[in-house]
């Protein structure tokens, strides 16, 4: 069977079976939000993939899914090797961000089985819930709950855009939020986490390499900024009489762009809600979300300081109120260099040169790296486009990723 189907997409049945779930016919993008029917269909797909391979599964207290080859027993002498990623998406996300790591995990296991290899320690595949934070605002919620980086109470207080709280959302999909929270026993049992992910940039394409390994993740976070003005008639309110929050918001966007350019950082407003949202009315409020990222924390703090200062100045000029709060923060992650060297060497011994790269994208691996040895593999993305329906990895590169992940699992779980 060819790796590539007639439409140029990856022709692995496991990959193809996931493609229809949660895809918008209008945009071709994915809307796989946590604790929704599409999210649950993704979970069912995961459980079926595990079942087809005879791997027992469990849903942990936080809604993360686990499939085990050689499950850990109570007296497991040896810590487990875990691989996986996430199945949820941003609104109209691509097919690869998250799912590539999970499909590759199952296919890597298939290839070890086909070669007659077996793990000498527990080997698990995980699907973390709500990695994108698209529904409840906090990125990597499932892994943060697991490690205790987010408390159960803070998570239970989260609501989605429709005011549905996490407990209600979980209950709607047959889960309970009563037991969410840190799971130190589960974490203690893990010796290594390795996440394979599509690269969300084009560094590997420039370097001519199909796979790479992660060195670090830029510190980043999300800040909600609320501008409150005064609703009024678009056709009768003189410009001088307006208290228009949209103007303060617009000035803030431009200020963020200037500050990011000067600090060699990144600032994005990708989500904004105008309230009440009438085309013939000055809005009463604008709610906006700043995504800010920088190579180091000092620059990130400076960037956010400059954006919030711009917001305050613009709000004062327009006679509107402004407030802001951090919704999600991820400090700088430096992946363990000794572990990375072992991963690079394992690949090199199989003739694969995997360059090391830093990324500005967040991952569950970044959360786990704070508590357990963690590594990341990246798969080339020729255009670098991600968080978009146009995200794409070539089938040959997906296969190279599977082979690389299989090599890492062989090195760390089968010896
Ligand atoms: C996740 O993809 C993020 O970096 O926001
Ligand atoms: Mn993403
Ligand atoms: Mn991702």
Keywords:
single chain; binds manganese (II) ion; nine-stranded mixed β-sheet; four-stranded antiparallel β-sheet; 415 residues; 13 helices; 22% strand; binds glyoxylic acid; alpha/beta
How does this structure look, described?
The protein is α/β, with parallel strands linked by helices. Helices cover 35% and strands 22% of the residues. Strands 1, 2, 3, 4, 5, 6, 13, 14 and 15 form a 9-stranded mixed sheet that branches. Helix 9 packs antiparallel against helix 10. The longest helix is centred in the last third of the chain and has 22 residues, at 297-318. The two termini are 31 Å apart. The mean pLDDT is 97. It binds glyoxylic acid and manganese (II) ion (2 copies). The site of one manganese (II) ion has 4 residues, from loops.
């Amino acid at each position: 069977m060819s790796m590539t189907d007639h439409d140029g997409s990856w022709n692995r049945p496991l990959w193809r079976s996931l493609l229809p779930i949660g895809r918008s016919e209008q945009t071709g993008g994915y809307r796989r939000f946590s604790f929704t029917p599409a999210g649950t269909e993704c979970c069912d797909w995961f459980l079926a993939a595990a079942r087809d391979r005879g791997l027992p599964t469990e849903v942990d207290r936080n809604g993360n899914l686990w499939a085990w080859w050689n499950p850990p027993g109570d007296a497991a002498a040896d810590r487990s090797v875990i691989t996986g990623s996430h199945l949820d998406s941003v609104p109209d996300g691509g097919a690869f961000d998250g799912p590539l790591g999970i499909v590759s995990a199952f296919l890597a296991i298939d290839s070890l089985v086909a070669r007659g290899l077996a793990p000498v320690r527990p080997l698990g595949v995980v699907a973390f819930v709500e990695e994108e934070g698209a529904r409840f605002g906090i990125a990597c919620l499932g892994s943060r709950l697991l490690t205790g980086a987010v408390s159960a109470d803070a998570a239970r207080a989260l609501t989605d855009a429709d005011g549905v709280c996490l407990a209600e959302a979980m209950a709607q999909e047959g889960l309970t939020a009563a037991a969410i929270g840190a799971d130190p026993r589960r974490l203690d049992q893990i010796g290594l986490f390795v996440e394979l992910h599509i690269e969300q940039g084009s560094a590997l394409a420039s370097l001519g390499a199909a796979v790479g390994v992660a060195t670090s993740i830029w510190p980043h976070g999300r800040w909600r900024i609320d501008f409150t003005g005064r609703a009024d008639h678009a056709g009768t309110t003189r410009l001088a009489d307006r208290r228009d929050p949209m103007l303060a918001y617009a000035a803030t966007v431009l200020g963020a762009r200037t500050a990011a350019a000067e600090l060699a950082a990144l600032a994005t407003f990708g989500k904004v809600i105008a309230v009440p949202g009438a085309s013939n009315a000055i809005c009463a409020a604008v709610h906006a979300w700043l995504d800010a990222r920088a190579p180091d924390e000092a620059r990130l703090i400076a960037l956010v300081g400059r954006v919030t200062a711009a917001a305050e100045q613009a709000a004062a000029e327009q006679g509107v109120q402004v407030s802001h709060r951090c919704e999600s923060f991820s400090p700088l992650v430096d992946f363990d260099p000794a572990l990375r060297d072992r991963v690079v060497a394992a690949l090199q011994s199989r003739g694969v040169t995997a360059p090391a790269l830093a990324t500005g994208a967040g991952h569950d691996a970044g959360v786990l790296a704070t508590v357990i040895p963690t590594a990341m593999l990246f798969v080339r993305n020729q255009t670098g486009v991600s968080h978009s329906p146009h995200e794409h990895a070539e089938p040959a590169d997906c296969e190279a990723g599977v082979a690389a992940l299989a090599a890492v699992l062989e090195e760390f779980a089968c010896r």
